[in-house]
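quick one
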Amino acid sequence: MEFNTKFAAPEKQSAACVAVGIFESRKLSPAADALDKASRGQIRAFLRSGDMDGKLRATRLLYRVRGIAADRVLLVGLGREKEFGENGYRDCARAALATIVDTGTRDASLYLTELQVPGREAAWKARQLVLAAADVAYRFDRMKTKKAEAKPLAQVSISASSKRDAAALGHGLMEGRAISAGMALARDLGNLPANVCTPTYLAEAAVKLGREWKLAVQVLDQRDMEKLGMGSLLSVTRGSHQPPKFLVLRYAGAAKKDRPVVLVGKGITFDTGGISIKPSAEMDEMKFDMCGAASVLGTLRAVAELGLKLNVVGLIPTCENMPGGAATKPGDIATSMSGQTIEILNTDAEGRLILADALTYAERFDPQVVVDIATLTGACVVALGHVCSGVFANKDSLAQELLAAGTESWDRAWHLPLWEDYQEQLKSNFADFANIGGRAAGSITAACFLSRFAHKFEWGHLDIAGTAWKSGKEKGSTGRPVPLLTTFLMKRAKGRK
Ligand code: BES
Ligand code: MN
Ligand code: ZN
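structure w/ BES:
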């Protein structure tokens, strides 16, 4: 879908479809009222017939309404006017856009941005429209021989009430495009099977992204990692026949001396659990264990498209976690790049092992802040479900900043504690500490483990185990937390000018 802004009265829009909102109890939005007047009461007459009650997400298509230039009128239910807010806006936008996609409408004109959403401005409304459109139109059929039939690209114009309004909407559209393209990239990589999306494939995707968006990309291989002493990362790849990679991507949007934001993404392209092997039910979903890495690539793409005035470094440690004759065994001890030794009591707690060395590697960039993103713990899904990601930070203001970015972009997160009290659970009799902390507070002890490699900078951690993909009938990658991360960076870029 392609979006642009337009000034015109709804009755004069010569599009294939003009969409307007109806509140419950048949109250008309301003645009619906204009259509009703132009058609000499046909909209109200239709509502009186009882065929549309304005319930949120309801849609009705009317053909050839007299006095109206567009071929069709799409009535979109807005629910109760008193309750109409962010959720209502997003839901009615999705419903309208889904109808436009389903019917293969070529050009549509939406009168939704005129609706008042408490606390939200024009740019936010425009951004949400683009994100909703991208979501309803997303398909992944690269691995199917029969592709979904190509529908014509819909041109969607959104109404602006003034020049200023048009400028703000236009800005929001631009941001929405960048974020949704980043999400689509992350979703595609996540949805690819692990026999295609290997560490080598991720490295090639990073190089390609670098070429397209002028990012400096370095691909370190196993020998480089050995030289760097990344014993923690390398302990995870031992059982795999796929060579591991460590990807470094750099986006330079500010002066060289400007300290970068470093994003670190977990890139386990398949997690069998290793010798501590997982049960077979739903193990296929462990192809999504590289969604943290995918979100870093997607976010860098968005940042580059937006041209943010900020330096951003993406670090992606990537490998498979497989059993095998050479695989790491429970009880084995690895020496991390930081020098700290780790007793690997469970080879399925591998994400933290590859992130540990990546965090140490981040030190060389003298970062203003480091944020890692990882499908790290099943315990996070138990705690928070699939609604929000878990946030941890070694500085409270950073946690608040990440939460706020999540709220603004509707890619929500929740703050969990990282108190010293939990560190105790990582005690080991044989090494500096263990890689697991027992059943209690699994997400927190995983974050505690990471914190031991993040003493030298401000650090945040997003556990996206519950949010990066959906299971069941709608199985697939979500593209989260690209919206949260991009919003976080947009705000950082603004704050530093
Ligand atoms: N990739 C998994 C976490 C995961 C599991 C995410 C299920 C989403 C759904 C991670 O590597 C893992 O296996 N974690 C273990 C840690 C445990 C052994 C301490 C877990 O959560 O069971
Ligand atoms: Mn695991
Ligand atoms: Zn994992």
